[in-house]
Amino acid sequence: MKEKEARAEMQYYERNLRKEPKKRPDPRYEIIGARTHVPPGLAPSRAPVAICKRHWPNKKVPSRCERCKVVKRLLQPVLPCVFFNQFRARVLAEDDGAERVPDGQGGFIPVFDTIVFDTANEGGLRPLLKTSLGPATPIEIVAMALDTNNDYWINYSRYWGKLSLVWCRYQPSSDFMDRWEVLKETESHWARLEDIVGSCFVIECTRSEFKDRLKRKLLPKSSDVFFTRDNFSAAFWEGKQQRRERRQRMRSEAAAAVESKLQRQDS
Ligand SMILES: [Zn+2]
């Protein structure tokens, strides 16, 4: 980005946004390591933040610009942001059979694990995230950001398991290992960091390597262990399935309308 644009962005920020009392960033998360300010830095290419090129960064947003309206509705961080590669999170601990402490209101006092997540995704440790596929989807972290509203964001790619693949009618290879294997989507999405609900392991290796590890009991001791060897373009299959479901819904609504009309005529 040009220096002039960055300066205009900062001036706008000083003039307008700084006046609002800022909320504190979520105390469950702590940034570790290097930070990149965007602007003047650039967001990672796989985790772009959409802008209206004509009206940004001047912020003179004309009411009639369609692009501005679309950008405003997108689920994404609001620039300027701080991007970072590593963070420490407190997430609810898995039930490991240890005795739990009652909270006096019929439930139990929540127990938290402290986990360090990293965009390098080394060692197979991955977050579980609440996504459109389910309440705990294994994901790969693409990027992370703290935005101008002090909201934490994560850019991620989902790993698709057997059930989700069946749902969107994608046919994986014939030797797909239903219990263990997941496919990584080539697309990425933004979500709030607070949608992270836990952690799992996704091991990148060949099928024979994984079978070997399985046989020799060389897998992490966690209930959620997966392996991945392949990518697929989820947007195409997911979009197709969503359109199919929309058509079915409209058809059954139309049928119900006809039905109730006939009933009214009968009576
Ligand atoms: Zn615009």
Distinct small molecules bound, one entry per kind? zinc ion
Could you please say which CATH topology applies here? SH3 type barrels
Structural class: alpha+beta
The CATH H-level homologous superfamily = Bromo adjacent homology (BAH) domain
Report mean pLDDT, rounded to a whole number: 88
CATH architecture: Roll
Q: How many extended strands?
A: 11
H/E series, N to C? HEHEEEEEHEEEHEEH
- What is the oligomeric state here? single chain
The main β sheet shows up as: 11 strands, mixed
What is the number of domains?
1
Detailed description of the structure:
The chain is an alpha+beta fold. It has a single domain, classed as Roll (SH3 type barrels). Helices cover 27% and strands 30% of the residues. It has helices at residues 3-17, 66-73, 162-167, 207-215, 234-266; strands spanning 29-38, 81-92, 112-118, 125-131, 134-146, 152-160, 183-185, 189-192, 196-204, 225-228, 231-232. Strands 1, 2, 3, 4, 5, 6, 7, 8, 9, 10 and 11 form an 11-stranded mixed β-sheet that branches. The longest helix has 33 residues, at 234-266. The protein is globular. Bound molecules: zinc ion (ZN). Zinc ion binds at residues 52, 54-55, 65, 67-68.
